[in-house]
Amino acid sequence: MSTRPRTTPPPPPPEPPSKGIEVGLLPFIASIVGVLFVCGVIGGVLWVTREDGDGPVATHTDPTQPGGALAGTPQLDVALDGETLVFTFDYEGLQEGDHFEVRTGGDPDQVTGTPVRVDGTEFRVGVAPGVQQCATVQVVRGSQRSGWSQVQCETVRKS
């Protein structure tokens, strides 16, 4: 047997302190700030929309009309001028900047096409003799619209 003393390897050097807490601290703080921000937004929305608070301001013109609709409908008349039909319109309360939109068709049930903008109070349509033309009109003021007028029809007489 050997009389040499046993040697044990020296213990490993101590590791530097872990920075896990410092590295994890930034995401933790960011998540707390995020939660507080979301809570603040929700609280602000609830505060603004509370029942006794001032609600949004109404912008429609007549409380009896659907939101954004102008009250009433325009008056539409039609007259013959040779082979031209002259549709004239009037609207009580017409303001500067308002315009009319006209829809036309061959009979009262076919007046459903794309509206045509008219910047005045008259719309002329040349029609062949014996052909019927019908129209309806509405007033447009910005994003507000009136109801459509009654459909008016006329036929150019054969010469």
Order of helices and strands: HEEEEEEEE
**Which regions are unreliable across 5 or more consecutive residues at pLDDT < 50?**
55-65
Count, helices: 1
Percent of residues in β-strands: 25-35%
Please give the alpha-carbon distance between the first and last residues. 143 Å
Helix content: 10-25%
| Structural class computed from helices and strand pairing | alpha+beta
Overall mean pLDDT score? 80
The number of E-state strands comes to: 8
Characterize the biggest β-sheet: 5 strands, antiparallel
Shape: rod-shaped
Protein described:
The chain is an alpha+beta fold. The chain has one helix spanning 20-48, and strands at residues 75-81, 84-90, 99-105, 116-118, 122-126, 132-141, 144-145, 152-155. Strands 3, 4, 6, 7 and 8 form a five-stranded antiparallel β-sheet that branches. Strands 1-2-5 form a three-stranded antiparallel β-sheet, with no helix packed on it. The radius of gyration is 39 Å and the shape is rod-shaped.
Short recap of the structure:
With 159 residues, the chain is α+β, with helices and mostly antiparallel strands. It is built from 1 helix and 8 strands; from the N terminus they run H-E-E-E-E-E-E-E-E.
